[in-house]
Amino acid sequence: MAAREINPMLKSALELGPVLAFFVAYLWLKDEVFTIGGREYSGFILVTAGFIPLMIVTTGLLWKLTGKLSRMQAVTLVLVVVFGGLSVWLNDDRFFKMKPTIIYLIFAGLLGFGLLRGQSYLQHVMDEMMPLAPEGWMKLTRRLCLFFFGLAVLNEVIWRSMSTESWVWFKTFGLTAAVFLFFIFQGDIFRKYGEQEQEGE
Length: 201
Known about the structure:
By secondary structure, this protein is mainly alpha-helical. 79% of the residues lie in helices and 4% in strands. Strands 1-2 form a two-stranded antiparallel sheet. The longest helix is centred in the last third of the chain and has 28 residues, at 134-161. It is globular, with a radius of gyration of 19 Å. The chain starts with 7 loop residues before the first helix and ends with a helix. This is Inner membrane-spanning protein YciB.
């Protein structure tokens, strides 16, 4: 299926909508307890149960409309289904809270494996978005590898030491802000190695 461009606002809504919906629904139901089939479920578990099919639908729509999915989107969806499903099935919110840890460890591991082979796997994913010289890609990949590992550790610290509500706020806004700030502070790489590639062309 050939890749297609879609309205950027629609694309953002499909990518970020489920996360924001999870956040709003959690704030609404966080203090509720629901009895289903003789078992009691917290609002968090119920919201997680709703989040899984929502992610499947929005990711499927994104795939249908654009004709492609990134590896990151595919991995994220699989982990949402697996760890979210375990949380609902076992009525244990810890599995879903571990999901960001697993995601970031996978990304850090893949980037680290590429670095050990002298390659930047990040370049294969983002080359069209950010043209950089090879040395720039290697530096950015090393930094991002360490950054993802740091986020994995931070997620573990937050969910194990703070309340569920604090973790939800952290997951919804803290992780997003951290990634945004990371790329903002990589301006030295973009300026130095982006210009070098343009000069070479």
